[in-house]
């Protein structure tokens, strides 16, 4: 059973920063791609960022390029999302996701493993 647990969300003013963490457990995550998605009430879950097992390949939504950075520590089975220059439109519930195929997709339906989410609220 794969378990993903997010942490690090909170309330921050526009222009501020937050660092989200996702701890994975339950099995070895060797070869897994990890990602972050976000969702606001009444809207679909959307892709934010992803990182392949090696860390050599990263992917970002256009809306967060240059502001967010995804990274991972395979020894700790963890993935991180550093969020800078936050905007009110970044307010959402942020989810960690994993896929053992290591193949990249920005479609939530292609990711089989999910955490419960951590709330990020950016005030103007």
Account of the protein in words:
By secondary structure, the protein is mostly beta strands. The strands form 2 sheets. Strands 2, 4, 5, 6, 9, 10 and 11 form a 7-stranded mixed β-sheet that branches. A 4-stranded antiparallel β-sheet has the order 1-3-8-7, with no helix packed on it. A hairpin with a 6-residue loop joins strand 5 (46-51) and strand 6 (58-60). It contains no helices and 11 strands.
Q: How many β strands by DSSP?
A: 11
Q: Number of DSSP helices?
A: 0
Protein structure class? mainly beta
What is the string of helix and strand elements?
A: EEEEEEEEEEE
What are the segments in which pLDDT stays under 50 over at least 5 consecutive residues?
none
Primary descriptors:
single chain, 124 residues, mainly beta, globular
